[in-house]
Amino acid sequence: MSAERIPVYLLTGFLGSGKTTLLNAALRNPALANTAVVVNELGDIGLDQIAIGQATDNVVLLDAGCLCCVNSGALHETLLDLLGRRARGEVPPFERVIIETSGAADPAPLLHILLGHPLVTPGFRLAAVVCTVDAQHFLESRKAHPELDKQVAMADRVVITKRDLADAAPVERFLGESEIVKPGSAFLGESRPQARLGALGSLQHGRPGGLRAFAFRPASFTWATWAAWSRSVAERFGARLLRVKGLLKMEDTGEIVLVQGVQGVFHPPQRFRDWPDADHGNRLVCIARDIEASELEETLKESETQA
């Protein structure tokens, strides 16, 4: 395995939201040269790779079932196979991987693989989860398809598509402070935890409970505090805690770490020698279903006393 882990971008979004169109446009960007693309489709006959194959030679099709629920075990095999084929010169060199999921995909199982599979993490790192949102149909479609909310909530970046067919302003207002990016920058750089993601609170409108995002600024953290808190929320909330991202300084060791969890399962932290951005403060973002801010605040206070 290479000492430099390859960044992976997970592209999600509902059926017909423009994922393949976004990929085609992005792969024409010279900055995205040397990109491998893993395509997943529902059904036994794959078509997306034909369209994307016109933009890149590095296309791998995972067919015969939805990657997220039926064939998720194949993802780690595919990524390892890509590394082997690159080493043998069977595919052109690549510097990043984009995984396009099917429109019905739940991102959570794939995030578990990218963040915690022991055969994947030595060679690959999750750079960002990108979600396409259809300006023409998103607000209406989410009423009948709750998976749209989950895809948006778990994404690091959102690309609003079909702006030429509909006014995107209502969707932008709905997304609020979510990180909305242009197509050309969707697969560049890496996303860090945001200090504020309050806009996702609007995802709960129109139905009881729902998804919300909460941002915290813990004054201090130690490894013992982190262990107590992650264990507490996993036991208390489980799968209702959809995603956790945090950038924390561990006071007992001085380490700066990126911590991540998906549906109550936490993965090994990524360590930095120094703060990776201009914000030198602890930040912790929790995306949850049917959980109140007060409940999360209570767990943070409890972890300080238990540590």
Chain-wise SSE layout:
Elements: E1 6-13, H1 19-27, E2 35-40, H2 48-53, E3 59-62, H3 73-87, E4 96-100, H4 107-116, E5 124-134, H5 138-141, H6 147-154, E6 157-161, H7 169-175, E7 211-216, H8 223-237, E8 241-249, E9 256-262, E10 265-272, E11 283-289, H9 293-306
Parallel strand pairs: 1-4, 1-5, 2-3, 2-4, 5-6
Antiparallel strand pairs: 7-11, 8-9, 8-11, 9-10
Helix pairs in contact: 8-9
Instruction: Please write the string of helix (H) and strand (E) elements.
Output: EHEHEHEHEHHEHEHEEEEH
Architecture per CATH nomenclature, i.e. the level-2 architecture of the largest domain? 3-Layer(aba) Sandwich
CATH homologous superfamily annotation of the largest domain: P-loop containing nucleotide triphosphate hydrolases
How many domains, as an integer?
A: 2
| End-to-end separation | 36 Å
The assigned structural class equals alpha/beta
Mean pLDDT across every amino acid position: 80
Largest sheet: 6 strands, parallel
- Detail the poorly predicted runs: 42-55, 61-72, 195-209
Q: Strands across the major sheet, in which order?
A: 3-2-4-1-5-6
Beta-strand portion reads: 15-25%
How many extended strands?
Answer: 11
Give the overall shape, derived from the CA principal axes: globular
Query: What Rg do the Cα atoms give?
Result: 19 Å
Count of DSSP helices?
9
Percent in helix: 25-40%
